[in-house]
Amino acid sequence: MLVEAQRNRGALRRVTGLARSTPGRLSLLALLLIVVGLLVGAVTAASVQRRSGALEALADRSEPLAFAAQEVYRAMADADATASSAFLSGGVESAALRSRYEADVAKAAAALSAATTEITRSPELTEALSTLSGQLPVYTGLIETARVHNRQGNPVGAAYLREASTLMRTHLLPAARELYGVETGNVVRDLEDAGSLPWLESLLGAATLAVLVFAQRYLTRRTNRVLNPGLVVATALTAISLLWVLAGSLVAVYNASESKNEATLVDLLARARIATLTARGDETLTLVARGSGATYEAEYAEADEVLDDLLGRARAMNPTPPVVAAVEHHARWQDAHRRVRQADEVGDYTAAVALALGQDPRGSAAAFDALDSDLVEAIGAARAELTDAIGRARAGLRGVVPAVVVLALLAASTSTFGLWQRLKEYR
To answer: Do 121 and 165 form a contact (C-beta atoms < 8 A)?
Structure first.
C-alpha cells in the first residue's frame, strides 16, 4: 500500500509539474481552443438550423395549411350562403348559384383532405377534423333534400334548409374555426422562432473571440512575439463566422417581422371574408323565414359589426386599393340591406327578394359580390407578400450552417497549428 501511494503521489507531481510548465500550459491552451471552437461552432450551427427549420416549416407546412384551414372555413360559409340564395330564388335555382355551391363543397373537401395529412403535427385537431369529415356529407344531403322540395314547391323545403344551416353553424363552422385557429397559431409560433434575435449566436461568437485574444496576449507575454499567425487566422475566421451568422440572422429576423405583419393582415382579411359570407347567409335566411327571421337578422347585425371592425383594422394596417374598395362596397351593402329590410317589413316580399338577389347595381347581391371580390384580391396580394417575405428570410440563412461548421473546423485547426509551432520550440 505504501509503495502504491508513493507511486500515485509521484504521478500526481509529474502531472502538476507539467501543468505548471510553459509547454504544459500551451498544450492545455490548445485543448481549450479546440474544445471552445468546436463546441461554439456546433451550438451556433444548431441555433441557426433551428431558425432555418422554422422558416422551412413555415413555408412548406404552416402557411399552406393555415390557408387550407381558411379555405375550409370560407368554402363552408360560402356554401351555406349560396345555398340560401339559391333556395330564395325559388323553383330551379340559377346555374351560377348551383355551380358556386358545388365548387364550394368540392373546395372544402379538398382543403379538408390537405389539412388532415398534418394531423400528427396537431393531434388536438382530431375531434374537429372528425366532425368536419363526418358532418359535411350530412349537410350536403340536407341541402339536396331542401332543393328537391323547393323545386316541387313544397314548403317543407325551408325546414330542411334551416336544419342544414343550423348544422353548419353549430357543428361544421365551429370545427372549421378551431382548425383555422390552430393552424394560424402554428404560423405565429414558427414566425416567432424564426424572428427571435440572435443573442445566443452573438454571445458565443464574442466569447470565442475573447478566448482567442486572451491566448494571443498570453503567447505575447511568454514568447515576446507580437502575433501568432495561426491564432491570427483563427481569430479572423471566427470573426467572419460571427459576422456571417449575424448578417444572415438579422436578414431573417427583419423579414420574419415583415412576415408577421403580412400574416396578421391575411388573418384580418380572411376573417373579414368569412364574416361577409356569414352576414350574406343571415341576410338571405331572414327572407327565407318569411316573417319569422328576427334571429337571423340579429345574427346579420352581429356579423356586420364584426366585418366593419375587421375592415377598419385592415385599412389602418395597409390601405391598399382592394382594401379601400372593400370598405366602400361594404358601406354600399349596408345601404342596400337597409332597403331590403324596409321592403320586407312593409310586406313587399317580392321587392325585397329582388333587391337581395337581383342584378340591380344598387342591390344587395351586387354590393356583396363586389365586396367578396375585393377581399379575394386583397387576400391574394397579402399572401403573396407573406410568401415573398418568408422566401427572403430563408435566402438570408442559405449556406450559413455549413459555413459555420467549416469555419469552426478551420479555426480550431489553425489555432492548434499556431500553438504547435510554439510547442516545438521547447523540444
So the answer is: no
Nearest to 188 by CA among 63, 31, 365: 63
**What is the spatial distance between Cα 74 and Cα 257, in angstroms, rounded to a whole number?**
27
Among 297, 279, 290, 300, residue whose Cα is nearest residue 348: 290
Tell me how far the alpha carbon of residue 104 is from its chain's centroid.
24
pLDDT in tens, 68-113: 888 888 888 888 888 888 777 665 667 788 888 889 889 888 888 8
Instruction: Show the cell assigned to 81.
Output: 350562403
Cβ(312)–Cβ(330) below 8 Å: no
pLDDT of residue 302: 93
- Alpha carbon of 313 to those of 195, 203, 289, 385: distances in Å? 24, 39, 33, 18
DSSP of 51-106: HHHHHHHIIIIIHHHHHHHHHHHHHHHHHHHHHHHHHHT-SSPPHHHHHHHHHHHH
Question: How far is 99 from 97, CA to CA, in rounded Å?
Answer: 5
Nearest CA among 237, 216, 234 for reference residue 422: 216
Q: Which helix (H) or strand (E) holds 254?
A: helix 229-288
Using CA atoms, how far residue 214 sits from 32, 207, 221, 232, in Å, is 12, 11, 11, 12
Summarised one tens digit per residue, pLDDT across range 287-318 is 887 777 788 889 899 999 999 999 999 999 99
Instruction: Give dist(CA 271, CA 202) in Å, integer.
Output: 40
Task: Assess contact for 386 and 259: CB atoms under 8 A.
Answer: yes
For residue 340, the one-letter residue type is V
Q: In the structure, what pLDDT confidence band is assigned to residue 5 with cuts at 50, 70 and 90? A: very low
Under a CB-based contact definition with an 8 Å cutoff, are residues 334 and 311 in contact? no
Would you say 133 and 116 are in contact if contact means Cβ atoms under 8 Å apart? yes
Answer positive or negative: Cα dihedral of 317, 70, 373, 89.
negative
**Residues contacting residue 255 through CB under 8 Å, at least 6 positions apart:** 389, 390, 392, 393, 396
For 342-392, list the strands marked E by DSSP.
none
Amino acid 18: pLDDT: 43
The DSSP annotation for 163-204 comes to: HHHHHIIIIIHHHHHHHHHHHHHHHHHHHHHHTS--HHHHHH
Regarding pTM above 0.85, the answer is no
Backbone torsion region of residue 93, taken as left when φ is above 0, otherwise alpha when ψ lies between -120 and 50, otherwise beta = beta
